[in-house]
Amino acid sequence: MKNSRHKPVRWFTILGSILTSVAVLSSCGGGTVASILVSGIGGTGISYGTVLGFGSILVNGRHVDDSGASVTLDGNPGDGSEHGGIKQGMVVKVLGDFSANTGTATAVEYRDNLEGPVCDAPATVDGIRTLRVLGQTVILDATTIVDNGSIDSILAGDIVEVSGLPDDQERIQASFVEIKTSTEVEVKGFVDMVDNGSQMLTINALDVNFNTALIDNNIPGNMPAVGQFVEVKGAGACGATRDALTATKVELEAEGAGAISADAYVEVEGFITALSADGFKIGEREVLTTGSTRILPEDFSVTDLAVGAKVEVEGSFANGALTAAKISFRRNVKLESDVLSVNGNSFTLAGLPGIVITTNSETDGDPVPATGGHIRVRGIEGPNNTVLATRIDSKPGDTDAFLQAAVDAKVGAQVTVLGIVVDTSGLVFEDIDEIPVSSQQFLDLVEPGTLVKFKGILQVPDIVFEEAELED
Question: What is 333-470's CATH number?
Answer without folding.
Answer: 2.40.50.320
